[in-house]
Amino acid sequence: MPANISDIIQLIYTILLLPFYLYFTYQLGYQIFIRKNKELRNEYYPLLFYKGIIDNTTIIVMFLTSRIQKFNVFDDFFLNNNFLAYILYFTTGLTFSNMFFIAFFISFNRFIALCHPIKYKSYFSLKKLSIYIFSMALIGIIIGSWAITYKVHYVWNKEAKRVSGVFINPNNAYFNSVLTIFLYFPLLIFTSIFNVITFLKYRSIKSHSSKNPSINKVEYRLFFYNVVSFLVMIAFEIYYIFRYFPYVLGNLAYLEAIAIQSLSWMVDIMTYGLFITSLSLSKVLYNLMRSSKKRVLVINCGFKTDSR
């Protein structure tokens, strides 16, 4: 099937946005780890840097091993190189799980910051944050490695008229269903609890700090990003339910078709969507995109800047 207009639109904004996201991630990492920028080398921005690594890895691998097939190019190459399908499913197993973890830790970060500020450094020191990130990566590697224990090949999909990477052993649906129920769903529950409690605390702080609107504005922007991230992860959980439960239940195959068609859009919202949201809410992050030469003085958690 020739690429449709939505595929072309996705290709265009990927070509436009991917270089910017790569540059942003590089600049953020450079400021945190090389320049040791005190305003960015804290307990929050390294999470966004790690998210940038996860997002860009997902985008690049999915494009080179899956999305490009929508344009019917290199079909024979993919059909003769099934190892690329293993790279695809290992990577997505790792990165998709880490997207859930990152959303959880960001919500937990704001929960501790607002509700238990005295304990904030105990939970989110740079050392603890490094442990969290290492743990997320390790669990993701385990999930990705387990995913590719199921045989996967590139095949010609007659209905879609394109090459697709598919699991030859459909029992992987049970594996992903277990992940959905016992890992991703609990993470969403805890994330929602943290967000609700944080919101109630934010309202309380807002009512008692009306004389300091800058604090309200900062916390509102941080909380708004958390909410957007949380809503996106709910959509991704629904994808997993639609994608794998029909096989386990032996029914509702149309839900699986919906999930497959919507995956690329969900991934783009989780990556580009949250990236653009973070830039629109944080001037210090926006300035990283504008110029690496400008000196940025960050005030109030990076949401009020003075460029010189």
CATH topology group: Rhopdopsin 7-helix transmembrane proteins
CATH architecture: Up-down Bundle
Query: What spatial form do the alpha-carbon principal axes imply?
Result: globular
- Specify the CATH homologous superfamily: Rhodopsin 7-helix transmembrane proteins
Which structural class best describes the helix and strand composition? mainly alpha
**Residue-averaged pLDDT, rounded?**
84
CATH class: Mainly Alpha
Question: How many H/I helical runs?
Answer: 10
Number of strands: 4
The portion of residues forming beta strands comes to 5-15%
As laid out across the biggest beta sheet, the strand order is 1-2
Keywords: Membrane, Transmembrane, Transmembrane helix
Subcellular location: Membrane
Main location: membrane
Transmembrane segments: 12-33, 45-64, 84-108, 129-148, 181-202, 223-242, 262-286
How does this structure look, described?
With 308 residues, the protein is mainly alpha-helical. It has one domain (5-284): Rhopdopsin 7-helix transmembrane proteins. It is 73% helix and 6% strand. It has helices at residues 5-34, 45-65, 75-79, 83-115, 120-123, 126-147, 172-208, 213-249, 253-281, 283-290, and strands at residues 152-157, 162-167, 296-299, 304-307. The protein has a two-stranded antiparallel ribbon. It is globular, with a radius of gyration of 21 Å.
